[in-house]
From TrEMBL:
Positions bound to ATP: 75, 205, 209-216, 247
Domain Fido: 120-268
Alphabetical list of PANTHER family matching this protein: FIDO DOMAIN-CONTAINING PROTEIN, FIDO DOMAIN-CONTAINING PROTEIN DDB_G0283145
PROSITE patterns hit by this protein: FIDO
Name of the protein this chain belongs to: Fic family protein
Active site: 205
Naturally occurring in which organism (per UniProt): Flavobacterium zepuense
One GO MF term attached to the UniProt entry: ATP binding
Keywords linked to the UniProt accession: ATP-binding, Nucleotide-binding
Domain of life: Bacteria
């Protein structure tokens, strides 16, 4: 028993957790164990493939942007991956929705760096939330980096008609203490533990806002901290976005004392996402080899600068003449010539053929791999 809904003096029903973890989350069915073992094998295969990718950190940048976009969209952000890339490149600086995506990216990179010197803990999660929310949309409601001191709810317009009411503050504090102890439990397969931590975090809902995005960051960063991933390349937000209603339904099943339903869904997501990421990595390798051959057929000097420029496009696939000039330390005329050569080689295409000034160019074949 994970907990039960108890009527509060104000008239609404709030979820009150039992001591955590309950027996159901210490003894698992053979089906769950088998599925978790497959998930961890596929994570290992994905992690191995990223090590043979040239400039893996450049490709990781795109995985992060895709995950950030899907995670923000789950919370109602309308911006797309392209909007975020344009804002990141300084091309579209007015889209506040895209800004949400960039804050998620900033928080993830902060988390990766912080875990090199600091343990995964409640304090770490609070720091992560602060990076995610400070100066971001809804910050004035979120109290960045601080657990809530008032009751929140999910769905509905009031506590009385809410779809789910998390624990009151005093019960939340007890649940968070149990949660932190569970983080350091070494008797559970890490992939199962990551799924349980996410669901329990969403059940506690300890922040006024940003719980969903923080909770999804926790999954990848926990697996990274446990060294299941040497590079944080497993991102589940696209799976959750694709199955958004089912995602909510299975989280509801979890705090309705049916945790195996959530774990099956979560592990299916890990397996599907790992397989797709392995396929994506393979497609990236093929595309890179094709475009490298085109560049190596040029004269030595042009090929050298072309290869360097191609590497930059794998990190940031949207470019302008001024971005190319600054990145390559070329004159504007030299950058224009380089871009023109990439258009001739069918590597870059104009984002909008009708633009006469300040044209934007896109590495479309590369972006399509992630969009598909």
């Amino acid at each position: 028993m994970l907990g039960k809904r108890i009527k509060q003096s104000e008239g609404y029903f709030s979820f009150i957790p039992e001591p955590f973890p309950p027996k159901e989350l210490t003894e698992f069915s053979s089906e769950i164990i088998t599925k978790a073992a497959l998930a961890e094998r596929l994570i290992g295969k994905l992690d191995g493939i990223t090590h043979i990718l040239p400039n893996a950190d450049f490709f990781l940048n795109m995985y992060v942007i895709k995950d950030a976009t899907n995670s923000a969209q789950i919370e109602g952000t309308r911006a797309t991956m392209m909007d975020a890339l344009e804002m990141k490149a300084g091309i579209n600086v007015n889209d506040t929705d895209a800004d949400d995506i960039l804050f998620y990216i900033k928080a993830l990179h902060y988390g990766i760096a912080r875990l090199k010197e600091f343990p995964f803990s409640l304090r770490f999660i609070k720091e992560l939330h602060k990076e995610l929310m400070i100066k971001a949309r809804s910050t004035h409601f979120a109290d960045p980096g601080e657990f809530r001191n008032s009751q929140n709810w999910i769905g509905g317009t009031t506590l009385q008609n809410a779809m789910y009411v998390p624990p009151p503050v005093n019960e939340m504090k007890k649940a968070l203490a149990d949660f932190e102890k569970y983080i350091h439990n070494d008797n559970v397969m890490p992939v199962l533990q990551a799924g349980i931590l996410h669901a329990q975090f969403e059940t506690i809902h300890p922040f006024l806002d940003g719980n969903g995005r923080t909770g999804r960051l926790i999954i990848t960063l926990f697996l990274y901290e446990r060294a299941i991933l040497e590079k944080p390349v497993l991102f589940l937000s696209s799976f959750f976005k694709k199955n958004q209603q089912l995602y909510y339904d299975k989280l509801n099943a979890y705090h309705n004392n049916r945790p195996e339903e959530w774990l099956h869904f979560f592990l299916d997501g890990v397996i599907q996402t790992a397989k797709q990421s392995i396929e994506t990595s393979s497609k990236i390798t093929i595309l890179r080899e094709e475009d490298m051959r085109k560049l190596q057929a040029l004269g030595k000097r042009e090929a050298t600068s072309g290869v360097e420029f191609l590497q930059l496009l794998f990190r940031d696939p949207i470019v302008t003449n001024s971005i190319a000039a600054n990145s390559m330390e070329f004159s504007r005329a030299g950058a224009a010539k380089l871009i023109e050569r990439f258009i001739e080689l069918d590597i870059l295409t104009p984002l909008d053929e009708n633009d006469k000034y300040g044209k934007v160019y896109i590495y479309r074949k590369y972006l399509d791999i992630f969009n598909n």
